[in-house]
Amino acid sequence: MTMRNSYLAAAVKVAIAGVAACLAGCGSSASDQPGDAAQSQPAATEFAFDGATSDNRAAIQAHGERLSHVLGCRGCHTPTLEGANFGDFEPPFDGIYASNLTRILPDMSDEQLERLLRTGVHPTRGDLWVMPSETFQRLSAADMTALIAHLRTIKPSGKATPAPVLSDAAKGMIAAGVLKTAAKSVADYKASEPVDLGERHAFGRYVARNTCAECHGGDLTGIKDFTPDLTIASTYSAEQLTRLLTTGEGRPGSKLGLMAVVGKDHFSYLTPRERSAVIAYVKARADLPQ
Length: 290
Known about the structure:
This protein is an all-alpha fold.
């Protein structure tokens, strides 16, 4: 499998995890409507990934480029950000594309792009599918600014991807309540937060809610038949977790599946401080009385 295909195959699994999280997450409420989700605002926070604040434009762009790896943009949209058809790896998703970002970005203002990322609503096409806005909604203003600054440096390349066409299988998943719009996922995750362990672990919680939550659910309790509750961190040493989040390698003999790809291709871009903070947070969370 080529590097491009390995990224996309992993991204499809993350996308499916997001679908499952919607089904297994909080129940619907009055706020679980596309119109309400589209109006959601990022939660106020003083935290940001390392390097988010600088007076140097090039440094901010470099920080945004790093976030494009950490947050998985280059997983779904491929390393070149030219996009691909999810159906190449999961037939029910055929016709749903990770867009060629290099082609659509010039047509959006920064405000429109931020709204799309945070709410899962396209400025002209409306609701998006298989877009992890549920985690992007929690990104700090400084991190969002840096990410957009980086995206603005990318020159158009490749072919434009078509608007989504839902397969009969996808329509069946929608009717069954399994596949939801990105906007509805935003509402689900907004009501499902990782436990607050106080100031000491606040930065680690910020990193976890913007990274781990995409696969392990808004509250990090895992997704049935896909990902475990992150209380599993109690069975790892800090050194083992550091290795996992740097190289994608687990304990000898362990079968990690998607985590092997995410650990190597996404979490390896964390700074040592970010990695240490998220490890400390998930281990402290695992130590809480169950």
